[in-house]
Amino acid sequence: MSILSKSIALAAGAIVAAASLIVPAQAEDGAGQQLYPLFTYRTGPYAPSFIPFGAGNIDYLRYVNEVEGGVNGVKILIQECETAYTIERGIECYERYKDGYNGALTAAIYPHSSGLDVALTDKARIDKVSIVSPGGGQNIATDGRVFPYQYPLIFDYWSEAQIIVDYIAQQAGGYDKLKGVKIATLYHDSGYGRDTIEPLGILAKKYGFEDIQIPVPHPGEQQQAQWQQIRRAGADWVFLRGWGVMTPVAIKTAARVGFPVDHIIGDIWSGSEDDARPAGAAAKGYLAVSVFPPGTDYGILKTLKENVLDKGKSDLKDNSKFGTVYYNYGVIEAITFVEALRTGQKKFGNKPLNAEEGQWALENLNIGQNRIKELGAEGLISPLKTSIDNHKGETIAAKIIQWNGESWDTKTDWIKADSTLFADVIKEKAAAYAAEKGITPREAASN
Amino acid sequence: MTTIQDDILATGPAASIPSGSTLLRIAVIVAGLAIAFGVVPAIATDYWLSSIIIPTIVMGLAGISLNLLQGYAGLVSLGSAAFMSVGVFSAYNLILRVPGLPLPVVLLLAGLITAAVGIFFGLPALRIKGFYLGASTLGAQFFFQWLFTNYPWFSNESQSLTISAPRLVVFGYDLQSPVGRYLLVATVTALLIGLAFLVVKSRLGREWMAIRDMETAASVLGIRVARRKLQAYAVSSFFLGITGVLWGFAYLGTADAYTYNLDKSFQVLFIVLIGGTATIFGNFLGAAFIVLTPILLDHLVLAANVAYLSDQGAITNLQRVIFGVIIIFILIKEPDGLSAWIRRGVEALQTRFRS
Predict the structure, then answer these.
(1) Are B299 and A22 a contacting pair at CB < 8 A?
(2) Which of A35, A328, A373, B270 has its CA 20 to 30 A from that of B37?
(3) Taking CB atoms and an 8 Å limit, are A18 and B299 in contact across chains?
């Protein structure tokens, strides 16, 4: 009994101490700063991709804060919140930071998880907070009339499917040469993996290539049967939509059945160093789609190396990750955030933006070629222009990169996606969603 | 086990003759309801409601569901999350395909569908026991994950296989706001707690405990063991189905097959272990522990501002280690769960007042 009461007293003491610690922290003033709630997953199965990704984000924002003195004088306050890539923890983080933190305002939230992006759809609409998912958002949310607060910025899997077909057509010598070509899609059997089935069906009908769809169950450590099937079908190209361990296993199994590795094109989540390197020699010549081109030769990367990395201020523990796909992804994402702030400040003045102003800024984002040059991001990002009609960006594009056994080489310039091609299908789906949810779509010209 | 004695004592003479203890009980219930429906919605912020109170209550309810099966009937299940997913997918499809069905009816039907599924997966319990039974309920876990991933019909052909919560409307009231969702969760939970008490104190509940404590003796006494076991699966699954709907619709706002994975089943199991087996309210202690401790640790790190002293990743991992240590500590110090603490505390107070 005495031990019991002691431990209860101890626990109570700890809680009181915790509470008293929290109170003075609340008093710390964030007024005049712009909050950037950084949703992390430094733990859990996907931590290896987050660590360089988060570092890219943090390093760029530190550079803006410390070297440029903030965004037009407004400092960015980074607050990390660990989600472990679970939706539950993510919702807690969202609720914690949606209204700002100690006076620092929230302009937008980057959930860093497709699942969380979907989970926040209704909440964001009620709270009027923008949810931004570069490269991993819901394609349907391209239609900003129905989804004012969702931004699948920069890229989506439908455009990816189209870019793959475009590249294959280039290799074949034109779209008219696609007739009879066999393109097999080997996909992770999940919502993410299935997302290219529909657009490839549409493209196959349009160009006359043969569309073969082959699922791989999660996590994808066994693919012998699938690759035999690809061989038997006589596929010319394989579009590999892997995730995690599935990608290196696919490359190795392809080598075993004798499928040429330079005719396998990985998806954007199959195109990092950590996807190719584990496959060893078999990966040499492997292709991938990239919206986050790796490399350290870009102006902004050099600036970061000089001002952040070399000064020991980087969030990276392992500097060899500098300039990798995921690191550069983080830098690109942070650039979209800072540029959105600049856009908003032009209209609302040089001060931190609130959620409503952030929403306007994201919807009127325009990172043109000149601005990209100023940023030192030529070749790193392609022009990005959003509107109510297009929350993804009107001129999105990707490059094809190739693994040389050590690192990635850039094989093509930006291949632009045709934003009109699937526009009707997306509008149709968004309209169906609006009907199901009882939402009245905004007019495209309302602001 | 002291808990059984408590349960039997509670259904003894004290329950039928109004006494001081009964009045006290009524007072506690009234006070609880007043706090749940009056005080909490009035003072809690959106943050507290949406990310702390709602998940704690729903997970507590999941704990009750499993406790009915495991704590009272002594049957094992590692498939709690699978039954939750059956509930949420049933409810989604009912709303989608039977327009105009009111939400309370949807909840009830989803519970009944899950109960039917639970009976099916409970059938092995008639033949096998313990560890083997655990493995068979694990089958439910994998089966439903496979079913909901491979048949997009269940998610209305959604490309991402994710279902999105419908608009929550009850008798014309929109429950979309945090307070609305809280009231929905609190009401359903209050009703289910009442039902759980009725079941546990009834003949059914007592026969479950008899089977749990000694199956042979129970069957000699004329208890129809097989039927009672299947009923345990049915009741537990009914509760889990409704819990699953609340988790998806009132808390997450979305659901897919992976939302209700094996991790979630283990979480429910931990809630039962930490809260205490064969209790009702103990489950809420367990749920609060599971939901709140990681958040509290996170806030502590934030408040202490040690983030810049060390690597963020290491701190996050350290939080998990601390969380694990606390669980082990509790289970060693108090194998009967947190509810045993509270019960002993109350007993100690009572003896002090009597003397």
Answers:
(1) yes
(2) B270
(3) yes
A1–B348: do the CB atoms touch at under 8 Å?
Answer: yes
Location of structure tokens 């960006």: A393
* Measured distance CA(B112)–CA(A93) in Å, rounded: 35
CA-wise closest residue to B75 among B134, B4, B150, B115: B134
How many helical (H) and strand (E) elements, i.e. helices and strands, does chain A have?
Answer: 16, 15
In this prediction, residues B168-175 reach a mean pLDDT of 87
Give per-residue pLDDT as tens, B175-189: 888 999 999 999 999
Q: How far apart are CA A138 and CA A86, in angstroms?
A: 18
**Of A160, A140, A158, which is closest to residue A150 (Cα–Cα)?**
A140
Q: What is the ipTM of this complex?
A: 0.82
DSSP state, residue A75: P
Alpha-carbon distance A421 to B300, whole Å? Answer: 51
Q: Are B40 and B182 in contact (CB under 8 A)?
A: yes
CA atoms within 13 A on the CB side of B9: 7
Among A1, A24, A87, the residue with its CB nearest the CB of B252 is A87
Of B46, B258, B303, the CB nearest to A21: B303
Nearest to A93 by CA among A51, A131, A141: A131
- A57 shares contact with chain B (CB less than 8 Å): no
Q: What is the DSSP letter of B167?
A: P
Contacts of A243 (CB under 8 A, 6+ apart): A188, A190, A192, A193, A220, A269, A270
Sign of the CA dihedral with A342 first, then A344, A347, and A351 last: negative
- The answer to whether B137 and B76 have CB atoms below 8 angstroms apart is yes
Our CA-based measurement puts residue A412 at a distance from the nearest CA of chain B, in whole angstroms, of 30
Structure tokens at B10: 């509670």
The pLDDT of residue B15 is above 70: no
Residue whose pair of structure tokens reads 């640790």 in the numeric block: B297
For residue B355, pLDDT over 80 is answered with: no
Q: Note whether B151 contacts A: Cβ–Cβ < 8 A.
A: no
- Among all chains, which residue has been given the structure tokens 């660990």? A82
CB-based contact, A114 to chain B, within 8 Å:
yes
- Say if CB A244 and CB A269 are below 8 A apart: no
Count of pairs with CB atoms under 8 A, one residue in A, one in B:
115
> What is the C-alpha to C-alpha distance for residues B338 and B333, in angstroms, rounded to an integer?
10
Lowest mean pLDDT among A85-94, A197-206, A436-445, B131-140: A436-445
The chain-wide mean pLDDT, for chain B, equals: 87
Task: Give residues 201 to 220 of A whose Cβ lies within 8 Å of B.
Answer: none
A314-324 pLDDT tens trace: 999 899 999 99
Pairwise CA distance, residues A394 & A384, whole Å? 7
Does A81 touch chain B if contact means CB atoms closer than 8 Å?
Answer: yes
Contact residues on chain A for B295, CB-CB shorter than 8 A: 92
Report domain extents, chain B.
Answer: 2-258
Token pair recorded at residue A9: 């007293």
Q: In this prediction, what percent of chain B has a pLDDT beyond 90?
A: 52
